[in-house]
Amino acid sequence: MRIVDAKVIVTCPDRNFVTLRLTTDDGLTGVGDATLNGRELAVASYLEDHLCQLLIGRDASRIEDTWQYLYKGAYWRRGPVTMTAIAAVDTALWDIKGKAAGMPVYQLLGGRSRDAVTVYGHAGSATVSDVLEEVAGLLGRGYRAVRVQVGVPGLEKIYGVGRGGFYEPATAGARPDEESWSTAKYLNFVPELFAAVRDGFGYDVHLLHDVHHRLTPIEAARLGKALEPYGLFWLEDPISEELQEGFRLIRRHTTTPIAVGEVYNSIWDCRQLITEQLIDYIRMDVVHGGGITHLRRVFDLAALYHVRTGSHGATDLSPVCLAAGLHVDVAVPNFGIQEYMPHTDATNAVFPHSYRFEDGLMYPSEEPGLGVDIDEEAAAEYPYRQAYLPVNRLEDGSMHDW
Ligand code: CS2
Ligand code: MG
Prior knowledge:
Elements: E1 3-11, E2 17-24, E3 29-33, H1 40-55, H2 63-72, H3 80-101, H4 105-108, E4 117-125, H5 128-140, E5 145-150, E6 171-172, E7 178-181, H6 183-201, E8 206-210, H7 217-227, E9 234-236, H8 246-253, E10 258-260, H9 267-275, E11 281-282, H10 291-304, E12 308-309, H11 319-331, E13 338-339, H12 345-350, E14 356-358, E15 361-363, H13 376-379, E16 387-388, E17 391-394, E18 399-400
Parallel strand pairs: 4-5, 4-13, 5-8, 7-17, 8-9, 9-10, 10-11, 11-12
Antiparallel strand pairs: 1-2, 2-3, 4-15, 6-16, 14-15, 17-18
Helix pairs in contact: 1-3, 2-3, 3-10, 5-6, 6-7, 7-8, 9-10
The chain binds D-mannonic acid (CS2) and magnesium ion.
Residues 210, 212, 236-237, 262 line the site of magnesium ion (MG).
């Protein structure tokens, strides 16, 4: 089963996506997500200009060898662009292998460990009362877990609060939006949000919150402690993740569970956090975590240290990544939860799939392979549109983490 074609498809139904399609000499095809929000063309070029020609003629069944060939063969290892490109190849090869075996990919990963995948939805509005309304709506649709974000008085724009409709942080244009930030205003306000949500809905619903990398370790410790009465399921990305030992300080002060990892792309990024049990959930996902092959290694390491999975699932991860992630979610022993931000209708039309959401749970496709594809004709209707994630500055103008 030789690879005879490797094609990169860039499309922008409401937002940019990059997809790799591999085709074998016996007519099987496989797809992989290669989307890196705000740097999409870097990955498209890494694939088109450097990797695709290396794939032609390779045995499509040799997934591990191809992964090692692309990882070790690059010399310049790791990083989001490299690992997203490798992820796309790896995911497409797993899709092909499932089709060749006549099985959904989760069967090739050891079969089901659970019947369904528990997901969390997003409530993110400018005011607490609007957030409460959103939470009620999500509970009405059967969600058992809700990520809660809110506007902070005195801050004009803040992560996680949309401008109506689907929340997509990247904005089209030749420059990033600039947002301003005050840690003091944020820390003083957020506990009030969770007091109101617990007041309104009690303790049966899992509540999550994304700090989005913005605090120092001691500030994160303060927030974790302040939120303990509200029993969060997790506090996400409390600090910027380069300083792994920084999480020791947070751990010393609070029992609020910590989730980290959507910006990680290699097991080496999270090894210390896992082996020192400094986190409770690892957020790495198929598209940015080196594909199914590498993600399984990360999740198996995590399982040894009581760390559960909590994969990233924002709308800038395409339906191809979500489809693949659900196969991993349903199979791994240490599954925690899966983020689910529904894609737009235009996106779903470009990426036909057979995974499904029902009553707060998701079910991977039962078709051979991943159960997702890209409709290239529909994709061609939506040319690439330059877009950037925002940058974030403190109120005095100094650059901060977004
Ligand atoms: C966020 C993401 O979903 C999340 O947890 O952190 O929305 C993140 O901001 C985007 O994926 C960045 O492209
Ligand atoms: Mg996040």
